[in-house]
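stuck on this:

***
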Amino acid sequence: TNMNANEVIANRALELMGHQKGEYQYCSPHDHANGSQSTNDAYPSSLHVGLALGNVRLVAAMRELVAAFRAKGKEFAPIVKMGRTQLQDAVPMTLGQEFEAFAATLEGELTALERVQQSVLCEVNMGATAIGTGLNAPPGYAQKCADHLATITGLPIHLAENLIEATQNTQAFVLYSGCMKSLAIKLSKICNDLRLLSSGPRTGLREIHLPAKQPGSSIMPGKVNPVIPEVVSMVCCRVIGSDITVTMAAEAGQLQLNAFEPIIAHSLFKSVLHLSKGCKTLADYCVNDITANRDTLRASIERSIGIVTALNPYIGYANATEVAAEAHRSNRGVAEIVLERKLMSPEQLADVLRAEVLTKPQMIALLAA
């Protein structure tokens, strides 16, 4: 790969000099283009720069997805629903809070990707030549390469402090792959949540509607599948698998060089490309057009036993437990039983069960006080 690039560079130089391609006595791929370098510094340096540039595109795609979730968070802010833990009713929240959480969890990964870009992807070993001693490179060559790369890319490219260590160590790729794996795990979890929340359309949770993109079944008329979250989850599976490849290839290095950088490069560039397109696809073809099933969400709050948790500060845990048990046994609402037992006044109960109180615990504490 490196010598192919050197041949292209040398022949282009010959054209610019007025010579024919292949007249290497005037500009040689080895003696001139490769004169002060080795594959062992040019190849990893190119990977670092290429991944840093790719990461810029990945971060931009992620920002679009985060913005899409934030917009839905604002749109769904007034809609109260039941939260769930272990797939069981928990306590109330808003659909907006749920989507804001999706945005926040992705923002954390976005920050990690930006940090790893600054700290490790923008570090190069160009000028190290064969093993890091700089043999055959003139004094100052390594620093000039780093400075020039910074100029033409607009990125803070800098020279590694120890060129021998930088030539044999591929940990930068492991760190970056780990960041992408972490993003893939979170992204796939979000896609799973979207599929679960939209399950139905009659017998599932059916709290949200995903935009229909295609007929979903060759045998069941009218069936529409959540294909966009599914394809993004498959992308995430591929990225997680590629991380294993990068890990094993990095571990396989020996002494002053890691000979397995080609498979590291192949895996990482695929992951960057897949995640960039996956984030954009999820934003453009799914999140932007999600709608809420307000009737279902309202009904789930009204019949939920989980709202009894909000009454603990007023009626005590023991009473709340009895109310929950009776509500479950009799298939009646919590509020009805609380009033029947005269555990709270109608006015106080109505105040506590307001949407803005149920979804903001600090207000419950103030009311209880």
Summary: The longest helix spans residues 39-75. The radius of gyration is 29 Å.
